[in-house]
Specification:
alpha/beta
Length: about 475
């Protein structure tokens, strides 16, 4: 059907069409795929995009014959939705969200529900919740993970906000969400205002850590052990059949085997070594510093992306600054096995840090997060989905108030058994001059966490020396200060 100004509303203005149960604002890849997903699950959907041509393109393309209702004004969108209206915003995080809310509000009634499905900062979500609650509207800040494919076929969904809003959208979200191997939908109400977007933020921080650890393993195997991209790809295919089984390991194996049609080289070799970021990883690091929670692996991953952006400086430095020969001359098979074991241990350590951050943030912000539930809804659909999450669920089932995965017998043994491999891999990389930011940071976290005494006694003595900041003693109660120059 040909759409134009005269007949573009023909679908939306069909008086015999039942009203939609769900609205989606934003016809980008995520919004359009999520609309198709929800419509396919039996919940009629109405859509809107500020640029009319995007709506028309969607209706004539992927949505053709689906029954999705296209609308072209906010008044029309809200008129086509049953009440209470459920409208999900799939727009760019930041000021755009506030602008859409402002423009939508005149057409909403008390009790209507707005859902922010973007990567909004959790404090912005808390503010919007307060503002909209005061006006009689309900708000859900909802993390959505899974990318293009997940939005279409089933993402992991992380809502937080008003319980009444969750009750109204629960059947829709449970139908649209990914299903874990046991059939459970990968969605659950996580807590009050900001909780959903906070959990999504930490999910993305763990994702940063996972990706960096995988990149470091790849770098050491290629530059150090001298394996080809295909050989490393084959290793990742094999590793994905074992305890490292995960979405990121799976796609890495496929990436490494893809050839560039222009040059015939591995495609990965012609991609510029400059990793970008949208901000969620950085937010995780910043918030962890605010809360005083060490997340070494995630911080290292964020730093690695930053230094990757210094491409021109790195090229100059490579010509001026020498280092060791980066060719490994030892037992290659032994190194390959050690890399596999070190990667798994490092992954556990990264998750341990991320879940500890979630736990302390839950206490700080009053989220009342159930960490077993968080692990459960990450088992399918999302980017960090992995077999490891079943074991994490088990840890929090055994001890709901577990403060660190390393204090669970199962995970403690897994890491302790592999610490030798981590030390071998890291020392090998250091000897070859190959940076392993995240893996080294994870091992440092492990060693610091298991140390009954750290050199912070000297640091505190220095603080007392130059700033009279005082100190506590190990042998008596109280706060002390020494006149160091007397």
């Amino acid at each position: 059907m040909e759409y134009n100004k005269k007949n573009k509303k023909s679908l939306a203005e069909n008086e015999n069409m039942e009203k939609a149960k769900f609205g989606v604002v934003g016809m980008g890849v995520m919004g359009s795929n999520l609309a198709l997903n929800i419509q396919r699950r039996g919940f009629p959907v109405a859509v809107f995009n500020r640029t009319e041509s995007k709506t028309i393109e969607f209706l004539e393309g992927p949505a053709l014959g689906s029954g999705i209702i296209g609308t072209y004004t906010y008044a029309e969108l809200t008129e086509k939705l049953e009440t209470p209206r459920r409208i999900m915003l799939m727009v760019k995080a930041g000021p755009v969200v506030d602008a859409v809310i402002r423009d939508l509000k005149p057409f909403l009634d008390s009790g209507d529900i707005l859902i922010d499905g973007g990567n909004s900062f959790f404090e912005d979500t808390a503010r919007r919740t307060r503002e909209l609650t005061a006006e009689g509207l309900l708000y859900l800040g909802t993390g959505v993970s899974g990318g293009e494919e997940g939005a279409l076929n089933g993402p992991s969904i992380m809502p937080g906000g008003d319980l009444a809003a969750w009750d109204a959208v629960q059947p829709i979200f449970e139908a649209a969400a990914a299903k874990a191997p046991d059939g459970a939908p990968c969605v659950a109400y996580l807590g009050p205002a900001g909780a959903g977007h906070y959990v999504k933020m930490v999910h993305n921080g763990i994702e940063y850590g996972d990706m960096q650890l995988i990149a470091e393993a790849y770098d050491l195997l290629r530059r150090g052990a001298g394996l080809s991209a295909d050989e490393v790809g084959d290793l990742f295919t094999e590793w994905n059949q074992g305890d490292l089984s995960s979405y990121l390991i799976e796609i890495t194996s496929k990436i490494l085997k893809r050839k560039d049609p222009e040059t015939g080289l591995p495609l990965v070799d012609v991609i510029l070594d400059e990793a970008q970021q949208k901000g969620t990883g950085r937010w995780t690091s910043q918030n962890a510093l605010d809360l005083g929670v060490p997340i070494n692996t995630i911080n290292a991953a964020v730093t690695s992306r930053i230094i990757s952006g210094m491409k021109e400086e790195r090229v100059v430095a490579s010509e001026w600054i020498t280092g060791p020969e980066s060719t490994f001359k030892g037992d290659r098979d032994q190194l390959v096995n050690a890399v596999r074991e070190a990667l798994y241990a490092s992954k556990i350590l990264s998750y341990a840090q991320g879940f500890r951050l979630l736990q302390l943030a839950s206490e700080e912000y009053g989220y009342r997060l159930d960490l077993k539930t968080v692990a459960a809804i990450w088992r399918a659909g999302c980017i960090i989905r992995a077999d490891l999450l079943d074991d994490i669920m088990g840890a929090f089932e055994r001890k709901p108030n577990l403060t660190n995965l390393l204090l669970d017998d199962h995970f403690r043994e897994l890491v302790v058994m592999r610490q030798g491999a981590m030390r071998h891999v890291i020392s090998t990389a250091v000897g070859l001059g190959i940076p392993v930011y995240a893996m080294s940071a994870g091992l440092a976290y492990f060693d610091a966490f298991r140390s009954a005494r750290l050199p912070a006694n000297l640091t505190q003595a220095q603080r007392d020396y130059f700033g009279a900041h005082t100190y506590r003693r190990v042998d008596m109660e109280g706060v002390f200060h020494t006149e160091w120059n007397s």
